[in-house]
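Section 3.1: Structural characterization of target chains.
Under the original work plan, the team committed to producing a structural model for every single-chain target entering the pipeline before any wet-lab resources were allocated. The record below documents one such target. The sequence was received from the expression subgroup and is listed exactly as submitted; it comprises 341 residues.
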Amino acid sequence: MTNMQSLPVSEAGSKLTGKTVSIEDVEAAAERIRSEALVTPLLRHPLLDEVTGATVVVKPENLQRSGSFKFRGAFNRLSLIPPADRPRGVVACSSGNHAQGVAASAQLLGMPATIVMPSDAPRIKLERTRGYGATVITYDRETEDRDAIAGDLCSKSGATFVHPYNDVGVIAGQGTVGLEMAAQAAALGLHLDDVLACTGGGGLSSGIALALEAKSPGTVFHTAEPELFDDYKRSLDAGERLSNAVKTGSVCDALLSDSPGDIGFSILSRVAGEGVTVTDEEALAAVAFAFTELKLVVEPGGAVALAALLAGKLPFKGKTVGIVLTGGNIDPQMLKTALSR
């Protein structure tokens, strides 16, 4: 079964493979990004409680700078690059949200950025990455190796490669979402029983889970993925990192990673609860719900945790549940498609 293929421990393109992330790293990242990243609110809406039977709080990272949580990890990681190395710039691979986070961070820090993006990435993500001043190089997901392209760029320029999820600096930055959720829930007089976040390579999910373990003991973290791209759920169930059989074929473009990163997997394999998956139709229904009921613009990949909640993928009735809306960079046509359903 090709989709159950076991992966080697090392990760192509990541120079930080095998390192660990601590809660101290996450707390340091929070201080490092404080001047530029937004502290997104923790929202409540009575309709969510009504339709789920739970007490629901929503962390809208679609409101974050550059339109997704990715800015947090990117700005933290780029800030760690020594000043002497910054003129050589950074290189990243991304379908769009990490691309924008890195490009925006590089612009703020005065660094050149080159982003390797799939040719079928949403137009809005391609345009906005270029709008931050980055050079965009496109590739074919099916026939070309983005890691090889990025590696060649780095070897020629001496640029720093910033992995979208398998990087301790990136994971620490994403973990600030969990720090904020724990503090904001406590300020509301709530203790989170469960938290769900949209999961691709696992940088955000592992960072959140690590932060919650330290700051909200007893909270169970769950990965949420699109069907056919549930490598994290299957990997956690199997106890080893597995790959997906396909590279394309979902409206959730932000979550189409090949396999879990080993750094994040080492965290989530220790602390994560049961993972969940949703269909494209459920993701689009969540996009429509967020727009019409919550008045929030969310892309399909950023709405997967909400989709899992609305579809009743786990028994949350009577519990206090937190969900993360991870991104809002949606093409107008995709939003139209979601609303038409």
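The chain has 14 helices and nine strands.
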